[in-house]
Specification:
Blueprint lengths: L1 H23 L40 H10 L3 H5 L3 H34 L3 H42 L12 E8 L3 E8 L2
Helix pairs in contact: 2-5, 4-5
């Protein structure tokens, strides 16, 4: 059985370089520019740049996307400031500060209840202090996880916004608040208020 496994392994090793060499011989001509948007007959992409456009949108980025990610890792909201997304910056910084402050608050309470538990001699009081200690410790852990999650969301939001910051805005992107109304069946309508940020 061992000889069969070794033989199969040897055959696989012999075939792998041949597959790799065969893949290396495939060439594509990159000098031919093909517009991949020719099939779009819906008119949805009118006014956009074709796939062969010489415009380099990376030159227009507000900041380096990786830099934005690391800025938001250090201080949530800092990467959004570089992307000129001020509402998001305040939102992420405020949520992270609140979660960290709550974690510190509940951590201090847990420490106080632990000290009262250790100092108490009455079994009923010890049980009560221990239950309070566990409750505050769980709250501390919950808010710590919330702060970590907000930091990760802030990091990847800053990274994505930095990548998208170089693309030109459409004409209808200037409105910050919008109202959309459309009919709904025979008897009513649907209304939506949108806020762009």
């Amino acid at each position: 059985m061992m000889k069969g496994l070794l033989a199969g392994f040897a055959i696989a090793l012999c075939l792998c370089p041949a597959v790799g060499a065969a893949a290396d011989t495939t060439y594509t001509d990159s000098s031919v520019a093909v517009d991949t948007l020719l099939f779009d007959d819906t008119g949805l992409l009118e006014g956009t740049n074709p796939a062969t456009s010489p415009i380099n949108f990376e030159e227009r980025l507000t900041q380096n996307p990786t830099g934005a990610l690391f800025k938001s890792m250090l201080i949530p909201g800092w990467g959004q400031l570089g992307n000129r997304k001020y509402f998001k910056a305040v939102l992420f910084a405020g949520l992270d500060a609140w979660f960290i402050g709550s974690a510190i608050h509940y951590g201090q309470q847990a420490s106080d209840f632990r000290e009262q538990f250790d100092a108490s001699t009455d079994p009923t009081a010890r049980n009560e202090f221990y239950d309070l200690y566990l409750d505050r410790k769980d709250e501390r852990n919950k808010f710590t996880w919330f702060a970590v999650i907000i930091t990760f969301v802030s990091m990847f939001d800053a990274y994505a916004d930095a990548h998208l910051s170089g693309y030109p805005k459409r004409l209808d992107d200037d409105a910050q608040v919008g109202l959309r109304v459309r009919p709904s069946g025979r008897d009513g309508f649907l209304a939506a208020v949108t806020v762009d940020f």
